[in-house]
Amino acid sequence: MVFEFSQKVLFKHCDPAGIVFYPRYFEMINDCIETFFSDVIGWPFEEMHKTGGVPTVQINTKFSVPSRHGDQLLLKLTATELGERSFATNITAYANNEERFSADTVLVYVNKAGRPTSWPESHKIKIFSFMRSEND
Asked: Given this model, what pLDDT does residue 133 score?
C-alpha cells in the first residue's frame, strides 16, 4: 500500500515566475507525513505533540521538473524502514504522470524533552502493518 496525498500548487507556493519555490516542497512533504500519521496510524500531530514528536533528521531530495501555479500534485509516501526510534520514507510527487520531486526522509520519534525514544508499541504495530501491506 502506498499512501497518497493530493496538493494543488497554490499562489503561496510560488515565486514571482509562477513556479514552486523549493522550500515550499518541504512544507508539502511535512503535510503529507502529518496526514499519514493522522489517517493511517490514527495518531494526529495535535495528539502526538502532547508527549513527543517526529522531527525530520535527514532528508535527501531530487527536484526533477518544476511545478507551476495550478498544477495538481500527487505525493506518494512509501515506508522504507522502521527502526526502534526511527522511520524512513520515500515521498515522490507527480503531476500529469511526470515525476516532479522525490525525497527520502528519516524521522525520529522523540519524547517531550526532545530525546529519541522507542515508538509506542501500538503505533509501531500500525506502521509495521502499513509496511507489510506495501509488500503484499
From this structure: 87
